Design the sequence.
């Protein structure tokens, strides 16, 4: 084998060995939870980012509310050095779009950055129970539809007077008639007495 072929062979071996090592040195994001641009109806229990390789202690992830303010920050998970986890049990997230900013530092010092988003929608309103068809007790008794039994005064006859006549109303005409008869009688007696005297 010529020296030129030997050098080419070793160059290929070095490239094959070194190139995968260079690729493996990157701690790339593998699985985000919640997923990027997810829309959630309820607050998640945690934010979990899993990476392809082990993470250096300098790695971190932060959570930012809809206004952009940072509300949480953590480093590498204590039980899994390929993950970073933000527990949300102590936080109450309002509806809106949240941002997750992560920085992964590989064990060889290689650094990667990324940004994820998720949207938390307002909870659905609790349905109210429709009122039943049964009649609710009324505060006041309903007026009776039957006519009142209280007697009302009967209408008076036309003219406004009563139907009975008093005895005084009868005495006056009788007395007047007697006076007229007496005067007529006295006039007759005088007339006869004058005729006889003539």
Sequence:
């Amino acid at each position: 084998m010529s020296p030129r072929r030997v050098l080419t062979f070793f160059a290929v071996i070095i490239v094959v060995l070194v190139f995968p090592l260079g690729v493996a040195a990157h701690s790339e994001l593998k699985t985000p939870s919640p997923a990027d641009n997810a829309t959630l109806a309820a607050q998640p229990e945690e934010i979990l980012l899993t990476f392809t390789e082990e993470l250096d202690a300098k790695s971190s992830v932060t959570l930012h509310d809809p206004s952009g303010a940072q509300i949480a920050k953590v480093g590498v998970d204590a039980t899994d050095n390929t993950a970073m986890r933000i527990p949300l049990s102590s936080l109450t997230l309002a509806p809106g779009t949240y941002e997750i900013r992560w920085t992964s530092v590989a064990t060889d010092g290689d650094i990667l950055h990324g940004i994820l988003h998720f949207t938390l929608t307002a909870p659905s309103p609790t349905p109210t129970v429709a009122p039943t068809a049964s009649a609710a007790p009324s505060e006041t008794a309903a007026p009776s539809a039957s006519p009142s039994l209280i007697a009302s005064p009967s209408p008076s006859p036309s003219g406004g007077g009563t139907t009975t006549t008093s005895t005084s109303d009868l005495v006056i005409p009788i007395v007047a008639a007697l006076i007229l008869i007496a005067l007529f009688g006295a006039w007759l007696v005088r007339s006869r007495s004058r005729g006889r005297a003539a």
Notes: The two ends are 211 Å apart (CA to CA). Residues 147-152, 155-166 have pLDDT under 50 and may be disordered. The first strand starts at residue 29 and ends at 33. The longest helix spans residues 167-197.
